[in-house]
Specification:
There is one protein chain. By secondary structure, this protein is an alpha/beta fold. The chain has one domain: Hexapeptide repeat proteins (UDP N-Acetylglucosamine Acyltransferase, domain 1). It is built from 2 helices and 22 strands. Strands 2-5-8-11-16-19-21-22 form an 8-stranded mixed beta sheet. A 6-stranded parallel beta sheet has the order 1-4-7-10-15-18, covered by helices on one side. A 6-stranded parallel beta sheet has the order 3-6-9-12-17-20, with no helix packed on it. The chain starts with a helix and ends in a 19-residue tail after the last strand. Pfam families: Hexapep_2 (PF14602).
Length: about 220
């Protein structure tokens, strides 16, 4: 393999682990990268029950499993990084990102994630749970599933965990390493094990970006 080919393979690995780079590729890279992604995504469609919208990036190292009845729906502009584990039913809204080694299992009731939400490296979202009755081994306990709903514009930090039955409101932040066992209000910042509200995004300083939120604006 010549040096140019080696560089392209290295670039593919870079994109797999840092998929946000895909959306700002220079024209000389975009042509081959889009062709590569068409192949990756078509193979996934051929093998699993998935619905992939336009403009997505899916690392070939991601592990996506979607049996009939456990469909995975990937909205436009989503990115799924290397070593992500994704088991349907899962629905990703537009421009959702799943970073490396995130793990999502929809159980029976499913996971729904709103537009623009970011799931950081190593986060775990499980829409099922085991019983804990003392009269039988854990391996024989019944499994329940209530489902997970993650709102729009949410940031789930690295290595955070979200348990079955939880709803995380729009614009919320789940801190690194937090374990969320109850619903999170819109705009809340939660941290800790178990997670509790430690702040409100609306009280943070403005970023200065055009059209940004001002304290006093309605939620």
């Amino acid at each position: 393999m010549d040096l140019d080919a080696l560089r392209r393979e290295q670039h593919k690995r870079r994109l797999s682990w840092m998929p946000w780079l895909y959306f700002s590729l220079k024209p000389r890279h975009r042509e081959w990268a889009e062709a590569w992604q068409r192949e990756v995504q078509q193979q996934l469609r051929d093998l699993e029950t998935v619905d992939i919208a336009e403009g997505c990036f899916i690392a070939p190292e991601a592990r996506i499993f979607a049996e009939p009845g456990r469909t995975v729906v990937i909205g436009p502009g989503c990115s799924i990084a290397a070593d992500v584990f994704l088991h349907g039913p899962v629905t990703l809204g537009p421009r959702v990102s799943l970073n490396a080694r995130a793990s999502l299992d929809g159980g029976a009731a499913g996971i729904r994630i709103g537009e623009g939400t970011r799931i950081a490296t190593g986060a775990t979202l499980y829409a099922f749970d085991h019983g804990l009755a003392p009269d039988r081994p854990v391996r024989e306990q019944p499994v329940t599933s209530r489902g997970l709903v993650i709102g729009a514009d949410v940031w789930v930090g690295a290595n955070a965990g979200i348990t079955d039955g939880v709803t995380v409101g729009d614009h919320a932040v789940v801190a690194m390493g937090a374990v969320v066992t109850r619903d999170v209000p819109d705009w809340a910042i939660v941290a800790g094990v178990p997670a509790r509200v430690v702040g409100d995004r609306r009280q943070r300083p403005r970023s200065g970006a055009p059209g940004g939120w001002e304290p006093g604006d309605g939620a």
